[in-house]
Amino acid sequence: MPRTQRRKTPGPWNARPLATAALGLLLAILPAAGATRDRFVPGQPWPDTAGNTINAHGYCVIERDGTYHWYGSEKIPGKTESQKNEAGVRCYTSKDLLNWTDAGRVLSVSAEGQHPEIRDAGILDRPKVIFHPETAKYIMYFKLYPPGAAGDTKGTDVAYVGVATADGPTGTFTYQGKFAGAGSPNGSGDFAIFRDDDGSVHHIAVRKPDKALVFGRMSKEGLRPEGGYTVMEGIAHATEAPALFKREGKYYLLGSASTGWNPNPARMFTADRLAGPWRDLGNPCEAVNPHNKLGPEKTFGGQSTFVLPSPWSSGEWIAMFDIWNPADPVKAGYIWLPLRFINEKPVIRWESEWKPWQPVLRDRHVIAVNQVGYETGRPMRFTAPLSGDGTDFIVRPSKGGDPLFRSKIHQHVGDFSAITAPAGEYVIEVSGGTLKTAASDPFLIRPGLWKDLFWQPAVDFLIDSRSVVGTHPSAFGGCPWRDGTYYDAILPALVLFHRADPARIAAMPRQIDWHADKKRVLDPAFKFDAKNPCSEGVMEAVRKYYTEIEPPADDAPDVVKLIHWGAGYYLVNPATKDPSQDPEPRRIHPQTVEQIAYVVWAWPELKQWLPRSFYEKCRSFCEKNWAPSLEVGKWWAPSTYLTVEQITGNNPMGGRLHPYKGRHAPGHSIVPNLLMHEVAKRDGLADPDRYLAAAVMQAEWIVKNLDWNDPRTTKGHRMSEHRTIPHLVWLLQNYPDRAPAGLKEKITAWAEVAAKRSANLWDIRRFDDGDHWTIPKINDVGNWVATPGIALSASWVIDDPALKSRMRQIAVSHADAAFGRNPRLAASPHKPEMGFTGIERGWPLGHKNDVCARLELCRGSISAAPGSEMFPFNPEGAYRHSEGWVNYGAAWCLSLAYFEFDKEKKTVPKP
Prior knowledge:
This protein is an alpha+beta fold. Helix content is about 25%, strand content about 20%. The strands form 7 sheets. Strands 22, 24, 25, 27, 28 and 29 form a 6-stranded mixed β-sheet that branches. It has a 5-stranded mixed β-sheet with strand order 17-21-20-19-18, with no helix packed on it. A 4-stranded antiparallel β-sheet has the order 1-2-3-4, with no helix packed on it. α8 (about 590-600) packs antiparallel against α10 and α15 packs antiparallel against α16 (about 800-820). The two termini are about 30 Å apart.
């Protein structure tokens, strides 16, 4: 569905000098003059700055004095790989790795006076160049096969390594002879040249004829091996196309199998020493190249050739591949993809296009803002992590003009909440001290910003992520929403979202066509993707939903149709199991039943669109299955919680992970019991007081048993924490005479701990007072987007004005963090163009496509956030697991609803 996108003045990666503010976004290192490319497009034609296709294969890339040099074998037009088809080595230069200028042929087969061994070579390819500081020379190494050799060279032929040198990086290179490498009289095939941390240079090569991978140290002048070669123990036989790099003291080798010109699966190994033993890490590639439909099993159609350290992140590399085209080698293409370590596992994920990120320049002020904007009347704060106390800042219109606000930075935070500004787009400028003056990303200031810019994407996400009928015909987890679970709280989120502004919800565009969806899924030709955990019985349930549950009104708002979908699905398929190694079995979980209670409670506001029969089924379902919700859940007790040390390891998703997974937030039954109390009174059901008594008992248990200083009792419950404090507030506000003793003080004590742990430059609540800024090991963004609702609800019952005000600041700051005010200076959505407005930089790392819940197909998906590795300000730090989740979407919907409740009456309304 088309959505209006705000056209913004582009913003910077870090913060730009004022002189360049009007020049647009610096998406990478400053581009070369006249350059037009601002992103990598793997597998597509790559022209140089003159418009000619880059012709440099089997290549390497080196950087010298701020310029990158790409050296590759130049193929002769019209000749195949089975012919003598190399003209020599060509060099291209670039300032940004994107836009390349042809620097010419730096080693020519046909140059006048060229040595016969070069002139008559059968093969001259895979050039690798290093700068040799001992001789101040540039040394080029290349495969040099004797005359007559071509693409079908047999392993018993003698294969050499040629060596050439030059005084400068663009040559001309002069031939210095050859050697038969690998310690074999037959020489070596594919190879890499690797300079280690101690300056030693090593030749890593496929030995002929046995195809073992070996390494040997080069002589001091770098022209010949100085001794024997050593087998690299543990490297799989016939590993070709080796590319070597080093990370945190460990060696990593990327390579391929040996299948001629045909692609095969990539291989990756790691070791503490070059000699090994090397450990097989498997194939690091993920997803599919849509241009040729090839995935990891064929390395996207390419073969490894080089790995370059990323200039924009210390935790990232660029994996470089050739796409060979033996029939027309000149048209052979290139694939460059980010190589990142996700939970210590190397991952090369296909991206059809990706943008490099400029390194954060620490010679100027850095300004982190909410890239979308700020709502009039709410706290407006930003972080300047490099700016000292007393540094001046101003806020002015983005297109220029007089400042509307002036103030100073305190403890790296700038506060402009007192600004009086008409609705519009603005920037912050920071100046003073030893750092260069800089301007922020542009952002909006306007009334109603939350509803105007975030409500529709939130609804779009829950439309698109529906199981079976959404944007993918699957049901990962077997619940109404893909990747949903019994504790996802989507129905409560939708009900409260509707209650926040029913008129606004009713005015939203209608996208869900219940009858069209029914026709589609009941068609015998409909293909359900059942290759996902917990898919058993899903299609049967969906068919029952469309044939046994009376439909919503055709004109019902999408939010109401989503409520009908979620509750209706559970009515016909209530028993579920969380697929991420949850110890709880498949069953009707109390939290599933509690979700339906919200629908029953909200019936008076929904009945104009939902049939009475639907309501009666929902109410009967709750009555029949309610007994466990009258008790204190066994998993609420801190004695069941794992310590931080017990959750170390590589798996960021599965396993018990309690409480960090967020499955059993204490107090999750309190509000549902209060709702059922009201329903029982309204409908004349038996014993309504039992529900109220249970809610009071559960709140009393929390008062007596939870210590907020233990972070596992609060932030440790991740995105589900919104079921604890807001539930206690709901009880206190609506049933003050029945609230247990000490409840108000307990809520205030939570706020005091939250305020203490948020006293930092990001206004972000840390996990603990020690090493953990974020929840250990796990993606923290769900907690960030849930915190606004939690903090706002707490503010409604706190007496201390300063603490009340601080809760309101924290509520906004966590939303700000999700949209750019964080150490990575990136917004949480990986694909912000799918639904969001005004985001300059989405999260740079996405989850693998076409697996799990396929949430990459959904508009409005919120993906990830920095972990402790990037705090307090280390944007180059390692990434956490990056994957959207419908639970995050639910938490964000709830917070958006609470922003509206807070604006109106500082309470959740009754129906």
